[in-house]
Amino acid sequence: MRKILIIGAGKSTSVLIDYLLKKSEVENLQLIIGDLEVKNAEKMVGKHARAKAISLDIFNSGEREKAIQDSDIIISMLPARFHIEVAKDCLSLGKNLVTASYISEEMKQLDEAVKKKGLVFMNEIGVDPGIDHMSAMQVIDRIREKGGKMLLFESFTGGLVAPESDTNLWNYKFTWNPRNVVVAGQGGVAKFLQEGKFKYIPYNRLFRRTEFLHVKDYGKFEVYANRNSLQYKNIYGLDDILTLYRGTIRRVGFSRAWNMFVQLGMTDDSYTMENSEEMSYRDFINSFLPYSPTDSVELKFRHNLKIDQDDIMWDKLMELDIFNSNKKVGLKNATPAEILQKILMEKWSLSNDDKDMIVMYHKFGFEINGEKKQIDATMVNIGEDQTSTAMARTVGLPVAIAALKILNGTISTPGVQIPITKEVYDPILKELAENGITFREEEKEYLGYNPFGEVGN
Amino acid sequence: MRKILIIGAGKSTSVLIDYLLKKSEVENLQLIIGDLEVKNAEKMVGKHARAKAISLDIFNSGEREKAIQDSDIIISMLPARFHIEVAKDCLSLGKNLVTASYISEEMKQLDEAVKKKGLVFMNEIGVDPGIDHMSAMQVIDRIREKGGKMLLFESFTGGLVAPESDTNLWNYKFTWNPRNVVVAGQGGVAKFLQEGKFKYIPYNRLFRRTEFLHVKDYGKFEVYANRNSLQYKNIYGLDDILTLYRGTIRRVGFSRAWNMFVQLGMTDDSYTMENSEEMSYRDFINSFLPYSPTDSVELKFRHNLKIDQDDIMWDKLMELDIFNSNKKVGLKNATPAEILQKILMEKWSLSNDDKDMIVMYHKFGFEINGEKKQIDATMVNIGEDQTSTAMARTVGLPVAIAALKILNGTISTPGVQIPITKEVYDPILKELAENGITFREEEKEYLGYNPFGEVGN
């Protein structure tokens, strides 16, 4: 039996484990699920004969080395910062490794040694990063093989709520880590390229510089820019490209409303507020507004952000019950971002029968035989239930498929890598499609950034 | 002869040196002016018999120690980060020290040793910090001595252009370090207290949450909040105060226009722009605006910030020639803030006959014998010429006066300190007044933050 060690039995691993267990007879696999809390691992394993739960403290080097030594390939589903110790053991013990996280600087530095030993360390093979890399590179390589020259690449992903569960005015619920949503966009200026021009959007303008997208059968969405799109020049080999833009998808109107919080400073995670524990929601809001002995917090809020009383943004605030003076924050030494997250989680958490949705949208502009063309590729995936969520599937399936293909030698080029080579993306995308994760492609007229086809006058 | 060593012969030391030279016969002083560039020091010294210029590299510990050993008191006019080495030598060689800079953490840690040796290390004795401390504490102590209880303290300072030199639409010219003006407000959220409520203003709202001030004979000004007003609770012993607010003074309309740069991200100093050297001013502006094949940079700017064509803000931009496509930035790997500074320096630099102006405004609210009262104290100082600027005078005079009083033993309480005790502020403020730096006090009705005396309805 070939042993696959999966480290970290979080919620996101259910689909991953399920996939591998289904293949375990045919492929002669045994799964070892290791978690600090053995109960978490046991829950995932159930009574399956080919799976075993173990207690695994990754900070105990003896335990960690033993578990890795006993296995044929390792899948690390730990938070990104914990991969490196596992990776070092995999290197010294000669085991292949799969993670869904961005390659860290430390991980990158193992590349030479990993190559020398002929090992495969596959990273960034979840959904974003992951499916985005594979689906984009497949189209880009196809365009190039036909002699096309890339002019434009735009890529957008969003973790959203499924249409049937889209029941609040924000058209949004937390389907993944809420903290990441609250602090999104704060890591530095958003940089990208539009028609050869470098563009920069500061945080305070990010949610007002959105663009629209239409997805067949799903309607209209909006996009705000991700931090650094320019790095994809190198990663995808798009050296002479004119337009390079990556972004995050939301339903239309989310960003305009979210911007209220940004403008007032309620998403700031850099300082703690005085008396945060005893503060009411109303006090919290009032902290970001000028003092007045007479005017209401509501009127100050409206006046400060120039919100008309019949603006839907106001209804969105009301829905959050954010002016309530009886609800206490109840968090000690909390940052504005932490308090806002708490308030939002009361309203934006998924209920038991809610489903999530992943939307991915790529645009490829290119020139071929003197003609400009565009291909749009879209993928929508909707969760089945609270276990087999769209997020767990689109992260777990590519990880599982990659692990098995590496184990079987279908993917064998050594090195610390991400899934941007044909050897990797072709078989994985094929199998993802068999599991319902497919892209719809459409050829369009190339409009670039002149969508109305107008000339200035 | 008693020797005073002045380290750093920058532009700001002219008034300081001039004051001490005038006293040199009566007080039996010799001045030693040390600078890395001995020519700078020689310029300051002229042919005065009681002054000597020396070459002094403060990173050469031998040179530094010798110069300090030879003197009776040391005035360090170096940039703040360089004081500490001088301070350590002063401590070991048993010399008193005067600086105009904020006390650093390292400097603070010398306190115990400085006290043990009976030395005076006086810091923050320029204008802001400096005259603000002294003039505020004199009034606060007076109120307390009479049995009053402090309710409100607000304090504002601005380095501006004198009315007779106020010749541009921004009503502003650089009278001090331009860089500090461009990045002002970026060090973290502005925190303060209003009527017992903690208030927070993020950077992107800072220049829209201004308050107005009237100064007799000088008209209307506006104020934006400084970073952390709360620390003055400890510094001034204002533990139970309800309102505590410090800010920076500008002419009305400056902040609303400056906010255009803030909103677009043009004051960001955290990243360098691509191809900054070859960029035109117009390209620079366009980097912060969406791409369009047809619309002008001007229209995009107006639309993005919703500026009407007859808004004075637009004329302010025109005055800066900021849309010029022929003027090159010419700075390699420059940040937005560095580029903006360059553009502004072309228009906002003082010309030879321009004069500067320092404005300081304190409000003291207090309760005494069951009655609420308010005292407003204002100081305006206008420069004489490009040498005896208001800035050089209001920084140099208190430093010089303090040094002489310490030398003469009028100020003798040992320790690393700032000028907040009667022993220090009384004699210095008296002598500043003799030199034309005076405060006008006015008793007012206490209005707190209910300036219109209204009750909500």
Question: How do you describe this structure in short?
Answer:
With 457 residues, chain A is an alpha/beta fold. Helices cover 35% and strands 23% of the residues of chain A. In chain A, strands 3-2-1-4-5-6-15 form a 7-stranded parallel sheet, with helices on both faces.
Descriptive keywords:
homodimer, 457 residues, alpha/beta, Rossmann fold, Dihydrodipicolinate Reductase, domain 2, 2 domains, seven-stranded parallel β-sheet, seven-stranded mixed β-sheet, 35% helix, globular
Q: What topology does this entry show?
A:
2 copies of one chain form a homodimer.
Chain A: E1 2-7, H1 14-27, E2 29-35, H2 38-45, E3 51-55, H3 61-69, E4 73-76, H4 83-93, E5 96-99, H5 105-108, H6 111-116, E6 120-122, H7 131-145, E7 149-161, H8 178-183, E8 190-194, E9 197-201, H9 203-206, E10 211-215, E11 219-225, H10 232-236, E12 243-251, H11 254-264, H12 281-286, H13 297-305, H14 312-319, H15 336-348, E13 356-368, E14 371-382, H16 390-407, E15 415-417, H17 422-434, E16 440-445
Parallel strand pairs in A: 1-2, 1-4, 2-3, 4-5, 5-6, 6-15, 7-12
Antiparallel strand pairs in A: 7-13, 8-9, 10-11, 11-12, 13-14, 14-16
